[in-house]
Amino acid sequence: MTEEREKTEKPYRKLETQAFLQQIAFRQGFEALEASENGRLTWVTSGFPVEIPIAMDVGVVYPEQAGAIIGAQKIGPEVCGYAEDLGYSQELCSYARASIGSTQRPDDVPMGSLPPPQALLACNNICGTVLRWYDAISEMTGAPVFLLDTPPVEGEQLPHHRAYVRNGLNELVGFLSSTFNTTLEDDKFRNVADLSSNAINLWTNSLEACKNKPSPLNCADRFLTMAPVVSSRGTEHCVEFYEMLFAEVEDRVKQNIGAVGDEKIRLLWDNIPPWFILRFFNQLAARGVSFPADTYTHAWSGAIEGVDVSSILDEMVGMYSNVYLNKGLNAKIDKMCQLIKDYDLDGFIMFSVRSCKRYSLGQMASKEIVTERTGVPGVIIEGDMVDSRLFNEAQIQTRVDALLEMFV
Amino acid sequence: MTFDEVIEQSKVELGEMVESGRLAIGIFYPHAPYELILAHGFIPTLLRTDSNIGGAYETSLQTFACSLIRNMYSQREMNQLPEVSGFIFPGNTCDSLQNLGDVWRVRFPEDNVFRLTYPVADTSEASIRFLAEELRLLSEKLSNELGQPFFDDEYSKAVDFMQSFREAAQTLYIVRLLVPDIITYSSLASLVRGFLSAPGDGALERVRTAAKQVVDESGFREDIERIRKGILTHQFQDIKLPPNLPRPRIAVLGGMTEPEAIAKIIEILPKTSDSVIVLDILSFGFKTVFTPPPDGSDPFSAMAQSILASPGEPTQEGLRNRVTYLKDLISNLNIHGLIVCEQSFCDPDEFETPSLEKAVSEMNLPIVRLPIDPELSDLSRLGVRIQSFLEQLESE
Description:
The complex is a heterodimer. By secondary structure, chain A is an alpha/beta fold. Chain A has a domain at 19-183: Rossmann fold (3-Layer(aba) Sandwich), CATH 3.40.50.11890. Chain A is built from 18 helices and eight strands. A four-stranded parallel sheet of chain A has the order 2-1-3-4, with helices on both faces. In chain A, strands 6-5-7-8 form a four-stranded parallel sheet, with helices on both faces. In chain A, helix 8 (159-180) crosses helix 14 (309-321). The mean pLDDT of chain A is 94. Chain B is an alpha/beta fold. Chain B has a domain at 3-151: Rossmann fold (3-Layer(aba) Sandwich), CATH 3.40.50.11890. Chain B has 15 helices and eight strands. In chain B, the strands form two sheets. Chain B has a four-stranded parallel sheet with strand order 2-1-3-4, sandwiched between helices. The two termini of chain B are 35 Å apart. Classes of the chains: A alpha/beta, B alpha/beta. At the A-B interface, helix 7, strand 4, helix 8, helix 15 and helix 16 of A face helix 4, helix 5 and helix 14 of B.
């Protein structure tokens, strides 16, 4: 009945599964608090091989996800401002500023500040900023930082590169063992790796279902439902969530129901979304624009098949080194072209995020190449993911309008 | 010679070396393997930002790209860079330089672009092995793509050549700690920068002559070795400076800020000598000069070890160690205040500065932050800030 009413009244159909996200968020929040009180909480970056701390019974939370929550609450400028008061430049990453700001004044950020960490786990496969950001948090909280250095990969990952990252993984296990008095056992690790692979597989299937016309998911759906695969992979409840999501997606495909009521134009989204204005996608939905694919939520892929600690760690070397943002401009261009082809897209929007140099610098060149290779037009809009002071809605609307006019 | 004259001379010398048939390789990051490049018979030239060229070309790099890479990119677009046969971009040091290399390859496909990826983790043995292999691969690429192989005897000569420069430049730094007005900061900066831009016999001779001269004039010949050892081994408590040194004594910090920029700001201040700056802790200056020489039978491991042992870079892991290092330097070198330069849109600089500010404030020392770009677009305002900072110091 609800679905039926939305189908007729709204240009954008909300996912039923989305309702469970809040439960997962509460659960994570409670578990993180408990872990912190028990002296076993780590803060981790989104590209970190989280299966390792989970298998070692160490709690994890994600400052980037907290940054997204701060952005979605539209308090980004205020919380980033707390970091700026400490001397951090407004030119720095707004995830980092939001994290530093909310750590400095947790009572002023009830939804978005994280429980005190006992260690900080950073992996620079998503950007170089995390190293410096976590150093700053370490200075504030006293928690030690473990950096898993995964230098950017050009082409094939070479043996010395693999050996270096593998050494880093060994050191990570040693660091967690000594910091939290724990061990990494074959069975537990295999079980967590299986759960992680299952969740990623279900997530990948949900993404690939968007090749259908109309697409069962829009951009905002994926940005919201990606949260568990970022923060809870390796757990049973994460798998359960994606089983529900995929079932709903399959059902939509069977019934030929799209996320956007009247899908006319199919676009690719590149980069992190502006969390404070996800309605941006819904407004475009009213004009028949859907986003069946994006480069951000396709970052998690692959299954872990190793049988013991050593073989799983070996696999993780490649898996966590070869992530989208760690592979250079050519790989980004190839990925965009492939998505445009596979999802039969009409054009693309590149969000030039002032906070994220790793993701954004190079977009001007790649835009031209992607259009040249695929024949579809694209537009670059500039703003930020958390700090709405850096987002000029009217200017962006004008640029998007110019792109959409090309499809009339 | 003025700074501009020295830089002009280094351009001429580089041009002459290229005209004589040698090939030059442009480098963006000061902690580069000079010995490796020289061992292949190339001239390494550390590319410099040009204050006369504005960072433009927004069709290739957004305005939030760091000002250093925008300036370099603009110079390339305007054909203002020296004539080089290839460029070595650093990988993994910061996202801006990492991505600049990618954009460069797309926009200038005719250029030979090489990448040297640095480890940032503080895991000494594994990091050395990784960088050694990166250097070996770079050497192979230089050989295969530019046709000049690595020669062991050239490497040995290069090690000696670079060490001669470092020792002479270290001497200049050390003597200035004792007698800051014996040679202006601007002269020191220009000698170091001139050498890094065109490391030839002429540039080396200028640094060595200046070093010899200041040692003779200073009367501190016996203290120099002790202080050098203290700095190189980080045993700062062994550095005992004489009492009653002229005040104030200022140190300048910052990642990729050109020493030239600091010298230019001081230059515009009335009645202020740059002898107030007793030390820079910049990548292009102190950190490069106090890098220990490669030492070991395998040249690649030796060079890796040398590069990774240069005094703390904000591009590397270990903020805590760098803060401790800074505090030790400040307290043992009788520094009275700090100028911290932040290159606009530079992540490493801008993340590190609040921690440095906090550490220095805890020592009850004044500090001033200078947001700076290669064009020195805000020169007069920067001058005013330094002026009031100096007045504050003098009143204390």
